[in-house]
Write a structure and sequence with these properties.
Two copies of one chain form a homodimer. Chain A is an all-alpha fold. Chain A has 18 helices and two strands. Chain A has one domain. The longest helix of chain A has about 30 residues. Bound molecules: potassium ion (K) (2 copies). The site of one potassium ion has 12 residues of chain A, from loops. Chains A, B: Keywords: Cell membrane, Ion transport, Membrane, Potassium, Potassium transport, Transmembrane, Transmembrane helix, Transport. Chains A, B: It is found in: Cell membrane.
């Protein structure tokens, strides 16, 4: 009567992911990785932050880790951002092996695809896109970094920041992140281009690559492109008007620097997590607004996190549809099916519930920090954003564990995690063609 | 080509409601109402707080208003709690006049009913229930208040607090609300019975009155009864464990007082808004938890506010249904129809959006209060709860106007307000029989 135990796709993904975090922790704890002694918790936090492409730090990377250490971090970011299974596929393909159905199912889960067809092609493209953007835009970065840091260090910094940006990790080798380049056009344009492209999602890149013309793009692609543009413009205006006179942030900047800083800080919260101004010095309404951006996040099947831009748009469409007395959620002449609505609603509610439990826990464990600091930290971890008011290193060990856990939940997605806890195999919701991706 | 302008039901409701607030403001500003001089804004705030049965105060009622003034407040609470149209119906019926279809449509809107049949019967019952509970339980209160305050004052206090409790207003004639009776069994039981019955909703009372047996109750009634019981038990346990050692609240209470205080503060946040402990002294996690309770609120078509308990339950049902891979939202062997899901989702999202805008506005206008104090105040106003950390009188005039506006939105419901802004007449979503009420 022994029941054969086998893991479902979601469970295998979670297990592999956790294994990589543990591997990263052990490697970062080794003497060759560090300049100063760090605790196991420090190593675990850094490894989790890198694998989940979050960028929150309990230690300052450049003063703590050796070049080998930061390179391990960079590799973890690359694994985490692109997905481990996609790497596994590449290795299999290079070895000339066939990808089994079981493996395809796991990749399907990881890439949030509804069919098994075209998966391998998608994975290959995904690599080509990554190498192209990280390489090409990394070279552009070196135009600025080589003169500033010398050839070798300049190239390394360019590669590290290109990888960190494209994978929306927000890790930086400067202690004050990118505040030193607040008004620099090259750094602003290249870094933001990298994280916006990385955050818009691989299916969107693929769609643009294949169809090239707006009319032929899928609904998902159109929504992502327009949505990203609109939300960035709104965020730019709000942040500029709130912070333009704040002496701690934009107030002391002159000329175009002010606009670059507002632009950068408007685009970065939806997962990238870089900062070119001091986040801890932002006004409370700005922090609150950035928390909303962090919750919304980037695109599905991208290097970004959050509940995802299309989920947010779908919820808005349902709301405005109901207010205008429609019984369907219609956008751009397409109906959003019930299954997608249920999924979006579930993702949003589950996310809010998890965030609330985490805030509640930290309010109990941390008595020296304010509510907004704690809420900001939790939402940042959940959205795998990595912006912080600066409290991360001073959190209690319990608090750091909660934040690390939130980063993992945020990266894997609350739904994947919940589904990985259920035993039976997934009855996949199959979307009709031309569908938008939720979460 | 002149277009005849006529108001839809939602617009008429909003206009009548606003008119009563203005009438109340003028009456409260008159010299016969006050012991000390108050500003127009003070009068407007008190009138709004009473009509919306919220209970937030910028002035201390007993030291500011005369007996006539507090009686005006009591009448506003009664109008606001039961609904103005229901009073109009009573007057019409007493005058022997017929209720027109147009009037019935407005009552239908006010009572959130899906059909016109049985409306007048429901309105009559509603009055009988109110008079019965306020009268009978008010008499029970006088057992405690007459010995404490003398016959005349004792009776007046009993009536005022019975009306305030049944209508979930939370207004009190004591400066420190009910903290003086923190351990008193009569006050705790009678006041909480009044606001729980008032908050559970008139259709539930009607259903219980008509069918008497559990099996014959509607889904809505069953959900409300079970939901109220479960959420109150959970809230009791959480508040007791968080606050039992807090010297500012439960820490200094002994014996049964501690349990009475925890019970009362667990039941009151879902709209009643009375307090028997100092809200400003609660720990941050407790404040956060109470904010969630305030957001959820009481029952549909009740004297309470919030997004409503059944809306909250529906959202949970959808979420758990999706996680368990069902494509329908099923509870107690009934399916929640799409229209109710869309409505619930719209109410929840609209509520969150409005709350966020208000918090954002107050973060800009009030620089001396913390994020949690501001968020608590906004959610309290939106849920027409009336609990406060004590900042209401010290808010800027702009801030007080925002809070007053939030009380109105919370009382009328964000959906009614939004629909009143649209021009065309409502295509009613008709629910199949045995449906639950959303919002
Ligand atoms: K990040
Ligand atoms: K109230």
């Amino acid at each position: 009567m022994a029941r054969k135990r086998s893991f479902n796709s979601a469970q295998i993904l979670v297990l592999i992911f956790i294994s990589f975090i543990i591997l990263g922790t052990v490697l970062l704890k080794c003497p060759f990785s560090t300049k100063v002694s760090i605790s196991w918790l420090d190593a675990l936090f850094t490894s989790t932050s890198a694998m989940t492409v979050t960028g929150l730090n309990v230690v300052d990377p450049i003063h703590t880790y050796t070049i080998l250490g930061t390179t391990i971090i960079m590799l973890l970011i690359q694994f985490g951002g692109l997905g481990i299974m996609t790497f596994a596929v590449l290795i299999y393909l290079l070895m000339g092996k066939r990808i089994s159905i079981k493996q395809r199912l796991i990749i399907q889960e990881e890439l949030n695809q509804s069919t098994l067809g075209g998966l391998i092609k998608l994975v290959k493209r995904l690599f080509i896109f990554s190498i192209f953007f990280e390489g090409f835009l990394g070279l552009l970065l070196s135009i600025r970094f080589i003169p500033d840091l010398g050839l070798e260090k300049g190239l390394y910094y360019s590669l590290f920041h290109a990888v960190s940006a494209f994978n929306n990790a927000g890790f930086s080798l400067w202690t004050n992140n990118l505040t030193g380049y607040v008004g620099d056009p090259i750094v602003n344009v290249v870094i933001s281009a990298l994280f916006i492209i990385g955050g818009i999602g691989f299916t969107v890149m693929n769609d643009i690559w294949e169809h090239k013309r707006w009319r032929q793009f899928s609904l998902h692609t159109k929504l992502m492109l327009l949505g990203t543009l609109i939300i960035n413009i709104i965020a730019f205006i709000i942040i500029l008007s709130l912070e333009h006179d704040n002496p701690g942030t934009l107030g002391t900047l002159h000329g175009t620097d002010k606009y670059w800083a507002a632009y950068f800080q408007a685009a970065a919260p939806r997962t990238a997590g870089f900062n070119s101004v001091d986040i801890g010095a932002l006004k409370p309404p700005t922090l609150f607004f950035i928390m909303i951006l962090m919750f919304i996040g980037a695109g599905s099947i991208s290097t970004g996190g959050g509940i995802k831009l299309t989920t947010f748009i779908s919820l808005l469409v349902i709301m405005f549809g109901y207010i205008r007395r429609k019984n369907e959620a219609v956008i751009m002449e397409r109906t959003i099916p019930d299954s997608a609505i249920f999924k979006g609603l579930t993702v949003a509610l589950l996310s809010i519930a998890i965030i609330f439990v985490a805030i509640f826990s930290l309010l109990m464990s941390e008595r020296t920090f304010s509510f907004i600091q704690i809420a900001f930290e939790v939402v940042s971890a959940f959205g795998t954003v990595g912006l912080s008011t600066g409290i991360t290193p001073d959190l209690s060990s319990f608090g750091q564990c909660v934040i690390a856990f939130m980063m993992i939940i945020g990266k894997l997605g609350p739904l994947t995690l919940v589904l990985s806890l259920t035993d039976r195999d997934k009855q996949r919701v199959r979307y009709p063609k031309g569908e938008i991706f939720i979460s």
